[in-house]
Design goal:
Helix Hairpins, two-stranded antiparallel sheet, alpha+beta, Alpha-Beta Plaits, Rev_trsase/Diguanyl_cyclase, 7 strands, 2 domains
């Protein structure tokens, strides 16, 4: 494992503690830490959902065969492309049920109001005629009974509306969680490729002024091969934290996948976006990486970046592809380089 002693961010420390727990589980089971496996174990460790934790615990405590495959199946069910749709379908069903129940109570309340009005009109007509004391007593009892029924109906309606309000609040929370889960990379805590695609589409649709940068770690495969995936994951997390530290306001740092990251920089000129990427590259280059497991010096690591600005003719795909081409131009020109265009 690798760590940078300069880190003092409480949130980062909590994320690191959880990640170290995940890595220890994988080490104990001699389990390769692929992104799906990490995401499942990370959410199990942080207690995201009781059902998920029960599934994962069952796999981890079961026969030590095909654990990675089983965890990948869990990933598909809970975090794969179908998971969001299933969650939305579940919420839609709950919402349909709530609407149906409220409709029934509203109909009952309307009928109660109509009945009360009818009873009151009948009582008024009776009072307009010559009535005896017994007739008056009977009319009063009828009005009181009607009011009692109406009050019960109103109270039932009020309780149902309070329950519905609670259910809608819970569904809203569930939607927020689903949205966040489907748009977050749990290794780094940054928004993921899904979120990046949505943000690029939004900015292009508004014809907003922005720059987009793609950042890629140099020779990252050799790091994983030499020092192991746990070290590689810690390097990715540290780069994610570095990007987060250097983006402010409306700027967005994302993890695209693997060792590729993206920066969306609204209201930023190309020269400013390039300077920011060069600053990040310099700070990353200055980190002295140490293997925590062996105390060996890993040494200096570098990154490359391609930076471009939105053009009025751009689509999300075209600006993404242009940044990608600039990134690989930087790679082909020797790496540890930022190229803009």
């Amino acid at each position: 494992m690798v760590e940078d002693p300069r880190i003092e961010n409480p949130r980062f420390e909590e994320q690191r503690r959880l990640a170290e727990t995940v890595i220890q589980i994988a080490v104990d089971l001699r389990l390769p830490i692929s992104p799906p496996v990490f995401e499942v174990l990370f959410n199990h460790v942080r207690g995201m959902d009781r059902g998920l934790s029960e599934e994962v615990a069952g796999v981890l405590s079961g026969p030590p065969t095909r654990i990675e495959e089983k965890l990948c199946h869990i990933y598909d069910r809970w975090f794969g492309p179908e998971a969001l749709q299933k969650g939305l379908s579940r919420i839609k069903k709950k919402l349909d049920n709530e609407i149906a129940e409220v409709s029934v109570h509203v109909s009952d309340s309307l009928r109660g109001n109509q009945q009360l009005s009818s009873n009151m009109r009948e009582s008024i007509r009776s009072l307009a005629q010559q009535v005896t004391k017994d007739d008056l007593r009977s009319i009063c009892k009828g009005v009181a009974a009607s009011n009692k029924l109406h009050l019960a109906s109103v109270q039932s309606m009020s309780l149902q509306l309070e329950r519905t309000q609670f259910q809608l609040t819970e569904m809203q929370k569930e939607l927020v969680i689903l949205r966040k889960t489907s748009s977050t990379d749990h290794l780094t805590g940054l928004p993921n490729r899904r979120y990046l695609d949505e943000k690029l589409q939004e900015l292009v649709s508004r014809r907003a002024n922005f720059c987009f940068a793609m950042i890629d770690l140099d020779h990252f495969k050799s790091v994983n091969d030499r020092w192991g995936h746990s070290a590689g994951d810690n390097i990715l997390r540290r780069l994610g934290a570095l990007l987060r530290e250097n983006t402010k306001g409306r700027d967005i740092a994302t993890r695209i996948g693997g060792e590729e990251f993206g920066l969306v920089l609204p209201e930023t000129e190309l020269s400013g976006a390039r300077r920011l990427c060069e600053l990040i590259a310099g700070e990353f280059r200055d980190i002295n990486w140490i293997s925590q497991s062996t105390d060996e010096d890993i040494g200096m690591l570098t990154l490359s970046a391609g930076v471009t600005a939105f053009d009025s003719a751009d689509t999300p795909a075209s600006i993404y592809d242009r940044a990608d081409r600039l990134l690989y131009q930087a790679k082909n020109n020797g790496r540890d380089l930022v190229i803009s265009g």
